[in-house]
Amino acid sequence: MHLKTNIKRPGVAFVCSWLLLVLSQAPINVSHAAEQRIAVIYPVVKKPYSTVFERIIEGIAAEAKTDIARYGLKGVDEEQGAAIQEWLSDQQSDVIVVLGRRGIEAVRDLKLTIPSVFGGVLYVADTTLANSAGISLTPDPKQLFGQLKRLSPGTKRIFVVYNPARYQWLINLAKPAAAALGITLVAKAVEGLRDSARIHRDILREAKRRTDSVWLLQDSSIIGSNTILPMILKESWNKKLIVFSSNPSDVPRGILFSFYADNKALGENLAKLALSRLDANQKPRTFILPLTGALSAINLRTASHLGLHIPFEEQRKFGLVFPRK
Q: Whole-number mean pLDDT of the chain?
């Protein structure tokens, strides 16, 4: 089946979102007070990487509806912590938004006296700040599974292999999200590439074409881009089995679909989360939320091979389409 694809092709939004991943919508009701001031700490990087953080900060400012204080991190400096602490004291901000792994590392050991929120990272195993909330770059399972059901209504099971040290929080969210759609999530915990390869081979043998699918997480500790991924691509293609991913860079390689960040929307959600942390009735705690309001990418060559018919009007709803023309 040949599908016409006269729709949007990959552009700056996808490239910048992918770069943010390399560097690395649950509604929140808050009231905006003019005196609530947000400080943003972010890494200073060259273009096009810098565009990612510029758009996130633009979203933060738009949602906060007030001026925000910005602190750009230029490289690694042993005395950087003291400079940040002094800057925060001078700014008299009410809450901090920390972007990227480098930003989190820079403030990890500071004695912060105000709430903090982090973003621009995939998982929290080694990046979480004490009593801090964050938004991951990992797409919301609800959004992923909803897309799967639209493309393949007959899906009954989703297999996923994961590292519990990095993604147990996501699996805890994914199980009820799948159940709500009448899908059983079969989650297999592993600790390394060898176990991951073995479990993926077992899954690919067991999975049934019309009712099962495989979900890939973005995690180099269990998905080797030059080892396990090619094996999954080959076996799933031969079996005509649906495989979708949390990593948008897998889609050009043949994975059916994924989602990627709308960086301005991510900034807006970070601002909402930051302002919600100022609620006096909210107990301090550490948690992370998945990426919501993400944009979608699809591989129409893979869809055609799988026998999935996607009307042109539905194709137009995808932010990006592969293969590129």
A: 88
Angle at CA 287, nearest 5°, toward 39 and 269? 50
pLDDT in tens, 51-103: 999 999 999 999 999 889 999 998 777 678 889 999 999 999 999 999 999 99
- Name 132's bridge partners: 116
- The candidate with the shortest Cα–Cα distance to 204, out of 170, 157, 241, 179, is 241
Lowest-confidence pick of 21-35, 121-135, 202-216, 247-261? 21-35
CA gap 134, 121 in Å, rounded: 9
Q: Which residues pair with 244 in a beta bridge?
A: 215
pLDDT tens string 94-126: 999 999 999 998 998 888 889 999 999 987 655
* Rounded CA separation 69/1 (Å): 54
Look at the alpha carbons of 217, 222, 226, 227 in this order and tell me if their dihedral is positive or negative. Answer: negative
Strand 132-139 vs strand 157-162: parallel, antiparallel, or unpaired? unpaired
Q: Are 59 and 292 in contact (CB under 8 A)?
A: no
Token couple for 26: 């649950």
Give the helix ranges, DSSP H, for the chain: 12-23, 49-64, 80-91, 100-107, 141-151, 164-179, 193-206, 228-239, 263-276, 300-305, 312-315
Question: Among residues 325, 305, 251, 270, which one has the least CA distance to residue 28?
Answer: 270
The encoded tokens of residue 119 equal: 């973003």
Domains in the chain: ranges and CATH: 12-137+262-291 (3.40.50.2300), 141-260+295-322 (3.40.50.2300)
